[in-house]
Amino acid sequence: MQKKSLTQxxxxxxxxxxxxxxxxxxxxxxxxxxxxxxxxxLFFTIFAPFVSPYPESxxxxxxxxxxxxxxSLNHLCxxxxxxxxxxxRIFFGCRYSLIMxxxxxxxxxxxxxxxGLIAGYHRGSWLEIVIxxxxxxxxxxxxxxxxxxxxxxxxxxxxxAMLAISIAWWPWYTRLVYGIxxxxxxxxxxxxxxxxxANKMYILFREILLNCISPILTKMSLDMGWxxxxxxxxxxxxxxxxxxxxDLGSMVADGSKYLPDQWWISVFPAFAIxxxxxxxxLFGDGIRDTLGVERG
Amino acid sequence: xxxxxxxxxxxxxxxVFVLVGLSILIFVIARVMPGNPARMALGxxxxxxxxxxxxxxxxxxxxxxxxxxxxxKGALHGxxxxxxxxxxxxxxxxxxxxxxSLELALYAGIFMxxxxxxxxTISGWYANTWVDNLVRIISYMGIxxxxxxxxxxxxxxxxYVLEILPTIGRLTPGVVPPPSVTGVITFxxxxxxxxxxxxxxxxxxxLPAISLAMGPLSxxxxxxxxxxxxxxxxxxxxxxxxxGIPERTIMFKYLLKPSLIPTITIYGLDFASILGNxxxxxxxxxxxxxxxxxxxxxxxxxxxxxxxxxxxxxxVFIIANIVVDLTVGYLDPRIGLGTERSSE
Amino acid sequence: MTxxxxxxxxxxxxxxxxxxxLRVLDGVNFxxxxxxxxxxxxxxxxxxxxxxxxxxxxxxxxxAIIPKGEILFKGKDILRMNRAELQQIRKEKISMIFQDxxxxxxxxxxxxxxxxxAVRFSGKSGRKMKKDEIKARAxxxxxEVSLPDQERVLHNxxxxxxxxxRQRVCISMALVSASELIIGDxxxxxxxxxxxxxxxxxxxxxxxxxxxxxxLISHALGTVKxxxxxxxxxxxxxxxxxxxxxDLFAHPLHPYSKGLLAAIPRLxxxxxGEGIDGHIPEYINPPKGCRFHPRCKQVMPMCKDKKPPxxxxxxxxxxACFLFQNFGGDCIDK
Lengths: 296, 344, 334
Description:
heterotrimer; A: mainly alpha; MetI-like fold; 11 helices; B: MetI-like fold
């Protein structure tokens, strides 16, 4: 049922739609700035082993001859206390941040969305009550605190950090989709699909899900930034990625010991975090305006 | 009035449910931890029989639901067990550390509300002018900068370069704290009339509170601006103008009130970010609060303390949300009267 | 002849948008005499509301710009008034009733707050009213629009009232601050069919009772026919025809007016008319010459590059169409 072959007309209509949205998106210089920044970041992170000046600095490398050097032509962002090139470590750190953001989204979006769809579609039944009350419990703690707590009882590692963020973050997708699905349930087109005897799966995943796509996409693009921010907070206190993994949060934490004299060790990673979050924010805002999703 | 009481009662009942759920959640998370909490508490060199006795004491050898029963029984009596690290009563620790965190969160919350709304309002009134652009750039920066980065830079700037504001602790060493009435130093100082202490405490509060508030206040400013710009186009503003109501009354009364509703609605979420980031910021400013206590507990896997701290902060967050909902319901009759209808 | 109360001369309103300039109003001329009831008809999007908002200076000024034109109220140009003069006009001379009363009432203030503020700022220049005086006046206008239980309505929020009641409240607010001219911008559109008529009849009664003029924009052509003395037909930002209501409905001249009137079922005529093909042109690149020519069935070569002025076909009947060029009248618009 899902794999309906698309007619030529439908394809061209979709293409037209994409083109119109792109036009709208590209009219806003801020959105384009965000997109370009994301592309640049992606380039440097994907090709980090090739474009970074000292790829060996990403790991356990130690070179005390070059330790704690200020920014220079050799080391654009200076070196840390072990003589590792900061710029290289930033490239690799961004890599971990992006992987973290993508992985968390891949984990939570399907779960959150499916639960939200089910709860919304079965409004009034026990399924809704169970799902939404569990969601309420997870939402009752500020996400960063829940993530910290989960991290703290597990062995600190980048994977467990992702798990912890996922546990703290999935309920927001359930809430979002639940809100839309439960109001759509009464809409005419869903009713008519029901009357014509359409498969329940078809109604849920085609009729209703299709109408949640814009808010979900918007939320995902904005959440990328927030997840990276929370991830860096976790590793800042040592509950995320462990050394020698180059992680932006822990680089800031390490560097802060050498402030203010060797400022570059913490300042540049901090800028990197801000830059990533900023670009996803600009991009996400652009997506929201383009798709006409409400704020908040 | 009856409506409001009904609403509060409903929310409180719901909060009890959420707290119980939350305690189960935290409890389960805490107990799935690999390794032996008793061993960790006692250290590697403690003899095996001592570890075994502590396990007995903590009911660690029994099934999970029995453990939870013992824990919940204690928690109901305000007993969250013994900290595995400090060997003190967790409940007493929380009582000792909570006021400092409350004070910090309170001031951060106030800064966030006032500064955020003022900036957003200015930005919205002067939409698309240089003032607006400046505020928007600042708020973008505020949103994307992690609060721990703000904290580090404030510490750096003010302890090495400017030396105007203190960056450590709640009071200057040597200043005698006022007798504890509420535990919140600024309040105690005001109550006992010690204005010098009040200002000293305020100075100490300023940097951590602003580090915490920067992100959320930027968010508040952006939401306020967006809804002002949106609402000024509404028909009711045109209609009020056409009735000859002066611009000043429209701006301060008829435009501001509906525009603040979204701002206040997301206040709860922003407060969550203050509570969460306090874990990092209190650590950096060496602020003797519950969040720093909780952070240390997490770093040392002090299960009883972690569980209690998360629950207490969860409770604070729930209360904050009730206050937000009440305020929104009071400001917006569409919501306030809606609850009446749905509860009938 | 008496002097007109409101006279719009050659009004142009453009909107600056990202893709260019929307030339929405293209030389609108419009006159309202004292105590006159004027109807304004045309399709959605033809610039009726823009014209009315321009009168009250309610257009937000970017993106809107007014490159030329005057709006004379008792001989004084509203567009060139200073803040205080404009405020005086809004306070006591002219007021506007909007399409959707739900959107036109502030959702988070009680009716009482809103009406009483309208009363407080309704002028009688400079004299401060006492609190109970304000309340009494508010109750009085609510009574005038036949709202029952005024005391309770004052304490209600808009959400607690029905659509019809909300529109009555809006009318009462307009009454308070309009001693000379009320602008009704489709005041019935968003209401239930059964209430539409009541509201329009109420409006007519009130206007006649207070000797105010009214500009009534409406899609309900039947009502316009019954309620007004004079009708303007507007198309794509230009006035295409004006006549006494009787004359217009009996003998519409402009091809657009003919189509518009044919689009409503008539009691006397035979069924539903043909209507007009196509829709309002884009305002970024409006058609040259007569803006109606792409849709006109009687289009002539000259329509495509010259804009037709208003030709007088009789004392009170003018039409902007070259078909009537040699009808004997003078051209009133150079």
